[in-house]
Amino acid sequence: MADKLEGGCACGAVRYRLESAPMFVNCCHCTDCQRQTGSAFVINALIETDRITLLTGKPEPVPVPTDSGRPHDIHRCPTCHTALWSDYGRRPSLRFVRVGTLDKPGALKPDAFIFTRSKLPWIQLSPDIPAFDIFYEMQKQWPADSLARRRAILGQG
Prior knowledge:
30% strand, 3 helices, alpha+beta, globular, glutathione-dependent formaldehyde- activating enzyme (gfa), three-stranded antiparallel β-sheet
């Protein structure tokens, strides 16, 4: 990532900047993501919360139900309610930034397709991106430096 990426909500009340490249980018086709976005999938960039700088405004967490029953808060603009990022499992140090809210969403290509077992049948997956019926083995898919970053923020080492 040559430049720091910026993004924001639809109305412009919330603007943010990613201070580094994300640890990993997932394109998720699970039914929760389909339902919560009203779309066929969501692209999430996993990044440390302290590497997101709020430039204007402050998203508000909104708890949403999940098929798994695990906590999931979607942080939304308080004015236009655009979903900017998620906190899966109430881990305050980790965010799943909605790549579609970046000014240049094409700057982040997915590292993996996940939950493809529930992808819509007319979606064609790129053959150069690994695809998984459910999820992947993180130790095999994530770069070593990203695994170290994740361990650091989750207090695992």
